[in-house]
Amino acid sequence: MAVLVTGGAGYIGSHVVRLLTERGDDVLVVDDFSTGIADRVAGLPVLDLDLAAPDAEDRLVAAIDEHGIDSIIHFAAKKQVGESVEQPVHYYRQNIGGLTNILAAVERTGIASLVFSSSAATYGMPDVDLVAEDLECRPINPYGETKLIGEWMIDNAITAAQMRGVPFNAVKLRYFNVAGAGWPELADTAVMNLIPIVLGRVAAGKAPIVFGDDYDTPDGTCIRDYVHVKDLAEAHIAALDYMKSGDTSETVFNVGTGTGASVKEVIDTIAEVTGRDIVPEMGERRAGDPPALVADVSRISAQLSWKAEYGLDEIVRSAVAAAGMLPAAK
Prior knowledge:
There is one protein chain. The chain is of the alpha/beta class. The chain folds into 2 domains: 2-178 and 227-255, 3-Layer(aba) Sandwich (Rossmann fold), CATH 3.40.50; 180-225 and 257-323, UDP-galactose 4-epimerase, domain 1 (Alpha-Beta Complex), CATH 3.90.25. The chain has helices at 11-22, 56-67, 81-86, 88-109, 142-164, 194-203, 229-244, 263-274, 298-304, 312-322; strands spanning 2-6, 26-31, 46-48, 71-74, 113-119, 169-175, 177-179, 209-211, 223-224, 226-228, 252-255, 261-262, 281-283, 292-293. Helix 4 packs parallel to helix 5 (142-164) and helix 6 (194-203) crosses helix 8. Belongs to the NAD(P)-dependent epimerase/dehydratase family. It comes from Brevibacterium casei. Its EC number is 5.1.3.2. Its cofactor is NAD(+).
């Protein structure tokens, strides 16, 4: 395959690029390097492009034709929930505008396969033990809205392609809490998620802050489904292969482990792996944090034959190793 990966120099995108190149696929990386790191994709063809720019569609079409691209994996997007509340128009412009240009380029070039980076943020605050794909989506912030709107746009593009008799399929992957590092040099440097935030504070000699310890959970702290970034990357490969097989009876999939871990459990695991005493500070709840958010992964297991291989200990250990915080061997 010849795959165009937008946001390919980012944390998740670079893991997918690494797996694609390791199995022999040709890869073209598209990234504006606003958060991506060039060293992650060194030696690969790269198009430096803001997907929401006025000339993005034409430049994408030219690159697709030049490199013989047959599939696209679309990661490039703004993804900070708090920032999306402060700058909603910017998020609509970048995330929806960028996808608009991707779909326009798909239409002009005849690309047949697209994998879309969606999010569990599309669900909002579901009041269920396990979140299944057919649950009604009610996003509670502009970031989640852009992901859900993106899914609608793609579904409409598929319908339009079918009406024209043109082959086009897409898979939307709703990620839960992505963490860990498949390779140390590809580790998460954005420090926007729990594990890198805790590691950063511990490294600085500060106590991590737990936002709320009075939730209706076994230990009072929020429960989330943490999935290793390498497992997530493998899900994208499985999605590409699923579309190539011609079986697209389902097009949206949760990507998680199906098992939740509380904030306290994550911090305790970090303490165990680093060999440090970590005593968190307790803060007030954050608005919009559901008590628990855990994926029902039965659909992706059945349709894509995908299953997460790594648990919380491996996720934390890989992140700690990438941060250089493993205790010295005795």
